[in-house]
Specification:
CATH architecture: Alpha-Beta Complex
Number of strands: 9
Helix content: 25-40%
CATH class: Alpha Beta
Order of helices and strands: EHEEEEEEEHHE
Number of domains: 1
Shape: globular
Distance between the termini: 14 Å
CATH superfamily: Peptide deformylase
Structural class: alpha+beta
Number of helices: 3
Length: about 180
């Protein structure tokens, strides 16, 4: 299972909605295995397919950060059906290397998805789990966490990224690990 390069903002694939998965085949399983290995190599807790330049609508999640092999979850064609409450917390993103910002998200969500075999899942997520699911679904919708910041904070972060890009310090992609 190869580790795949992670694309970095403002790569166009991060800014376009993904395409629903229709085939639950060996190719999808290879993609998922590669994504899990990539996520773990870069010490992430979630990774959306478009972050490895694949337009399929799915993400992998491991809230244990690679500590518990049974904690890896795969969510295909996910959608949020309910949101409740609000929480604020620091978020990072593998497509924004070294950037961490406080983002507001729902405290609790109900979401639907399919598992890797195409079986339906409906689940309630709270706290950090809800935050992670919302972050990854945003990716699949072509939204990055930058868009969840206040307009002033967003402008400041974009300026910082542009300054890093001009100086050659902001990568086009990240090789995990």
């Amino acid at each position: 299972m190869p580790i795949r390069p992670i694309v970095v903002y403002p790569h166009p694939v991060l800014l376009e909605p993904t395409i629903p998965v229709a085939s639950f085949d060996d190719d999808l399983r290879r993609l998922v295995a590669d994504m899990v290995e990539t996520m773990h190599a870069d010490h992430g807790v979630g990774l959306a397919a478009n972050q490895v330049a694949d337009r399929r609508r799915l993400f992998v999640l491991d809230l244990s950060g690679g500590e518990d092999p049974d904690a890896v979850r795969v969510f295909v064609n996910p959608e949020i059906v309910e949101e409740h409450g609000r929480q604020s917390g620091e978020e990072g993103c593998l497509s924004f290397p070294g950037l961490f910002e406080v983002i507001e998200r729902p405290e609790r969500i109900v979401f639907r998805a399919l598992d890797l075999d195409g079986n339906p899942i409906e689940q309630t997520a709270e706290g950090f789990f809800a935050r992670a699911v919302c972050h990854e679904i945003d990716h699949l919708d072509g939204r990055v966490f930058l868009e969840r910041m206040s307009p002033l904070k967003r402008r400041l972060v974009r300026r910082r990224i542009e300054k890093l890009r001009r100086s050659g310090e902001w990568p086009e992609q990240v090789l995990a690990g």
